[in-house]
Specification:
The chain is an all-alpha fold. It has one domain. Helix content is 77%, strand content 0%. The protein contains seven helices and no strands. The protein has helices at 17-48, 56-72, 77-102, 107-132, 140-159, 163-189, 196-221. The radius of gyration is 20 Å and the shape is globular.
């Protein structure tokens, strides 16, 4: 049998998928690290300048407005600018919250514990999703409904001044954001999310909400609230 008679591998249509997926993963985590650093700088500047919190209404308008623009321009370089605008804005809103906690007894310890807990949860869950390659797409509908319910409950807790409900919402968000990290990481791996800008925004929002929720729960446990 000569070389021409050897069976040859036939390239499959999906053969390039792992390479494309790896590119999305790489770009997502690179952009995520940059936006987290930028958000941290914005928070530090907000803390140093002792800027006031913009309030619930302005925060929601700014967040959803910038999120809409990021989504609209997600396939262009303009989308990158809006990603940094969104994460910078969220960093600014975080500054006054951190100042309020740091001004209280054991505040620094609470903030550092919340940061460490957020990092541990994110690295652990995203690492597990990447290593196991399990498909967590089944969580999508549950997370969507859960986040909507928790968001509305959070608004109710603010407007009706219900601290008990506020704590329950923070606990819900810790679980929901943990699930969202698993879901989105799995979504990227399995090709469900091919736009690294939107993947970055989803993971950033998960980390931000996870951190602020842990901060609230730990602050209450430490007697700050």
């Amino acid at each position: 049998m000569n070389m021409l008679d050897q069976p040859r591998a036939i390239p499959l249509p999906g053969a390039a998928l792992p390479l494309a997926t790896n590119k999305v993963v790489r770009n997502t985590y690179l952009l995520l690290s940059m936006t987290l650093a930028f958000s941290a700088l914005a928070a530090a500047a907000s803390m140093a300048l002792k800027l006031p919190h913009p309030g619930l209404i302005l925060t929601l308008v700014g967040y959803f407005g910038l999120l809409f623009l990021t989504t609209k321009f997600r396939d262009s370089a303009v989308g990158l600018a809006f990603v940094f605008a969104l994460t910078g804005f969220m960093g600014y809103t975080l500054g006054p919250i951190l100042n309020a906690h740091l001004a209280l007894p054991n505040g620094a310890q609470v903030v550092m514990t919340a940061m460490g807990g957020t990092a541990a949860i994110f690295v652990g869950l995203s690492g597990y999703a990447l290593a196991s390659r399990r498909n967590f797409s089944f969580m999508g509908s549950f997370l969507m409904v859960g986040i909507l319910v928790a968001f509305l409950a959070g608004l109710g807790a603010v407007f009706f001044e219900l601290p008990g409900l506020s704590l329950a919402v923070s606990a819900m968000f810790v679980l929901l954001m943990s699930g969202l990290i698993l879901y989105e990481t799995s979504n990227i791996i399995h090709g469900g999310e091919t736009n690294y800008i939107m993947a970055t925004v989803t993971l950033y929002v998960s980390i931000f909400n996870l951190f602020t929720s842990l901060l609230h729960l730990l602050g209450f446990a430490g007697g700050e609230d």
